[in-house]
Amino acid sequence: MISKTMQDALNAQINLEQASAQLYLAMSAHCEARSFRGFAHWLKVQAGEETAHALKLVDFLLARKGTLDLRPIAAPPTGFGGVIEVFEKTLEHEKGITARINALFEQARSEKDFASEMALQWYVTEQVEEESRVGLIVDHLHAVGDKGGAIWYLDSRLAKRGTT
Ligand code: FEO
Question: Containing H/E element for 23?
Answer without folding.
Answer: helix 4-33
